[in-house]
Design brief:
single chain, alpha+beta
Length: 110
Amino acid sequence: MPLHGNRRPSIDRRNEEVEWYNQIFKDQTGIRWGISLKGDSTIIGSCGFLNLKKQHRRAEIGYELHHDYWRKGIMSEAIAAVLRYGFQEMNLNRIEAIIDPGNTSSVQLV
């Protein structure tokens, strides 16, 4: 689940996130994957597509990672896999990332 700063989201917040992931998948407007370390099922973040427009072959990519795992190459690996999936399996033509310009880490990542 998305983990922001030093705060751990409540169980209710986590359940809301999972419900949202399920709903965008059901509505075919997005898809989200949990991120975990190899050999560990603990979810430390997520990555995926939202605002999917199949008729235009486009989507937006979104991601988040618990701060304890920043700058370890984890999100770079996850984004590369998600982009490959989007272009090769979903046949997307364009994937956009909407980033706050002040978020220099995200700007560098993409």
